[in-house]
């Protein structure tokens, strides 16, 4: 048999005695794509950190062979020298440097020929063309959207003479258009003989791209199968160990009176020519799930930020909650009024990375445990933490573990837990299931229905149209800062939403 490009044998990795990988083996040939599927916390990122040398040789058991040679890397420099390049779940470009500087960062000393500025510019232009990015090499990273940054990361990898590219959830925050570009690039690389390990919770992408699908559950290797022989349902049942008969567990619930009325919401950045939110009015009823759809940049998130008092520009809106007119100028005021929001970008606005999972959960209600003399009622706090962890099934070794060590999906569940503890009347969820596996998504939907049955009202901003349609009672569609449509969920289709979300962009 032909020698595989990559052969990982029996990898075992533990963190302070807890096994994250329990003897996982995968192999991969030149120009092949293998997707790793598994629930949040199943060990996908950990396996790739072992492969790329983030976890060095000696910190795990098992063997890795690349092009027939055993790999004993002491860090990612060693694996990069072999042609193994990882693009992490959380992007790692330096925001204040230019695209070109980032592409050559840590790489310019790698070759004995030192490149002059002109050569670096022209090489960068070549690489950018390869990833179909039409921007100047001197653009600063902070001026780029997440999708464009993702493509710059790939350009950077191509500059390193990559033979095996590892993409850890590259599309979780991209627009559909950006996803198409990225998938096209992976296909092209495949054609050039570059292999790829692809991690994604989006099973349609997985099936479209891969030769092989390997499924991991709780650190155990369940199976590796040819993608051509699999359906999405096959993958799901291998991932969760049972059949999920329905993806959207809609439950009947009572919808009551109007509880929230927002009128003439407006938001703009100082000096900007166009408002991010332009005269939006809508209402929300008690026990209702209101979906908000629209393209990225349509103003959905900004509108929610106005309700939650955290928009970072000028904004105004008349907000009437349970008949009372409110001025919401801070998150504290919003929480006090009974409005909570789980933000879209959990790394920037959500978690405190080095703090324990438990304290991250109780962060918004700490004053509740503080007696007048300043001591914290630790018993009550720990009781609430354990309840919350159990209710949301947050997978963590202990509640003291720094939250940055949790898998992406479990961090998200912890943040949702935090806002539930504030006992909101209105819960705003901005992209609640981004980066979340199908099993955990199902649990989050169940939780949403349990909440509306208790009388909570939910606003859910989401780019995943099946989710918007599958979960919402009513759907608002935004386009360029304005409200463009309102639909009942009955009979609603993805086409109807898309037509509404892009109508003017097309005719313009
Ligand atoms: N540095 C660390 N310290 C302690 N535990 C860790 C560390 N890194 C990962 N873990 C644990 O190892 C397990 C596997 O995590 P990993 O990040 O590999 O999951 P994943 O499959 O990538 O999940 P997701 O889909 O959510 O990204 C989890 O239980 C996680 O909490
Ligand atoms: Mg991961």
Automatic annotation (TrEMBL):
Q: Note the CDD domains from the entry.
A: ABC_Carb_Monos_I, ABC_Carb_Monos_II
Subcellular localization is given as:
Cell inner membrane; Cell membrane
Q: Which GO terms describe its cellular component?
A: plasma membrane
For this UniProt entry, the molecular function terms from Gene Ontology, in alphabetical order, are: ABC-type D-xylose transporter activity; ATP binding; ATP hydrolysis activity
Keyword line: ATP-binding, Cell inner membrane, Cell membrane, Membrane, Nucleotide-binding, Repeat, Sugar transport, Translocase, Transport
How is the protein disposed in the membrane?
Peripheral membrane protein
Which SUPFAM superfamilies does its entry note? P-loop containing nucleoside triphosphate hydrolases
- Per the database entry, which stretches of residues form a coiled coil? none
Where's the ABC transporter domain? Answer: 6-243, 260-505
Q: Which top-level group of life is the source organism from?
A: Bacteria
Q: Which PROSITE patterns match?
A: ABC_TRANSPORTER_1, ABC_TRANSPORTER_2
Please identify the protein, giving its name as recorded. Xylose ABC transporter ATP-binding protein
